[in-house]
Structures are given as C-alpha cells and as structure tokens.
Amino acid sequence: MTFTPVDMDSWERRSHYEYYTNLLKCGYSVTVSLDITKLHRQVKEKGLRFYPVFVYCVSRQIAATKEFRMGRDKDGNPGYYDVLHPNYTIFHEDDHTFSDVWTAYTEDFSAFYKNMCSDMETYRHVKAVKAKPGQPQNFYCISMVPWLDFTGYSAYTESGTPMLFPIITCGKFTERDGRLTMPFCVNIAHAAADGYHTSMFINELQKQLDTITLKEL
Questions:
Q1: Treating both helix axes as pointing N-terminal to C-terminal, what angle do 50-63 and 37-45 enclose, rounded to 10 degrees?
Q2: C-alpha triplet 72, 156, 33: angle, nearest 5°
Q3: The model's pTM
Q4: Which domain holds residue 110?
Q5: CA 115, CA 36: separation in Å to the nearest integer?
Q6: Is residue 7, in this structure, part of any structural domain at all?
Q7: Which of 11, 47, 134, 183, CA to CA, is 20 to 30 A from 5?
C-alpha cells in the first residue's frame, strides 16, 4: 500500500476540500441504471459468476480514478492511495443476515476472480459483520441488493461526516427490450469528489462494461 499526501500549496482542490471538510460536511449519492447486457452475456458464455466479475470491473475503474482513492494519514492529512481493495457483502440465506468480506485487488483478472471466489467460499458460513480478518485501511465498500430495482439510495453516518472512500450499492437486474440493466448507486464525500468526477467514473465504468473481454479461466 502506498499513500501519497497532497501538496496543499499546489493542490487544485484545496479550497473545495477545506470547505466540504470544515464548513459543510456533506456527501452525496448518485443512482444510475447501468447497462450490463454485454458483460452478463460474456459471464454466461464463459461459465463465470457475475458478482466477482462485476466487483473486478468496479475496482479496476476505481484504480483508474484518483478522486475515488482518497484518504487521510494518521495525522489527518489528505492524500491518495495507489489502490483500494473491495470490501463486499455476502448474504446468509438461513437467517437473512450478511457479512463483510474483502479481497485484495489486482489488475490480473484471473487472479482476482479466483481469490474472490475462494474468499466467498471460505467465509460463507462465518456469522459476523466482519467475516474475514485483516481488512486493510485502503478499502471501499460495495454490496448487492438483488431483491429490489431501486431508483435511489443514500447512506449516512451518525456523526454526519461522510467517508472519503466510495460506498457502492447495486440492485436487481431488469430485462427490457433485449437489454439488461441494474441500478448502481455511488455515495461519496463532496470533499473527495465533485459531480464531474463521479460522472466521469460512471461513464468510464459503463464503457468498460461494454468493451471488456473476459479471459477463460
């Protein structure tokens, strides 16, 4: 893990960061309908599981988006991690609870896919919020709500101070006119990213879903 503090004297977002950190501690959420038609078709053709494939795609886009890799060091100074690892949820059918599991992100799709599938299998019976120990400091949250085709979602903390890392929530697949879509929500602190950055993140993620070629495993 590499954390690079920003140079406050030359940082183009200094005033924005300070305003949304000290004066108006707010975050925002954006929900869109992602087209997963092409990605889902590849997943089925290659006999893969959609969840780890999609988490890989999101993690890959976060790795390419500096504003979505923001954090603070032990002294509270802002900066950027070189990578964020996905912290995702697994659902327990027997008692309808969930657990968090994390998998280290690597650009190597085959390695990441196998590692996430292995982690999901290893910790699938662990009944705790945090099922896998050792969660790194540089993580982001992603979860699936496959029972609901929602049009909006928001997350907040009791302190009212939003987290700098993104919180991503996805929903139920919907097929219409030959297209398969899925609700996709991003929650993020305004101190970390503005509407422009979130728009570019979502637009580039959609391009990736349309063009990525998955390897045979």
A1: 130
A2: 100
A3: 0.95
A4: 29-72+82-211
A5: 23
A6: no
A7: 134
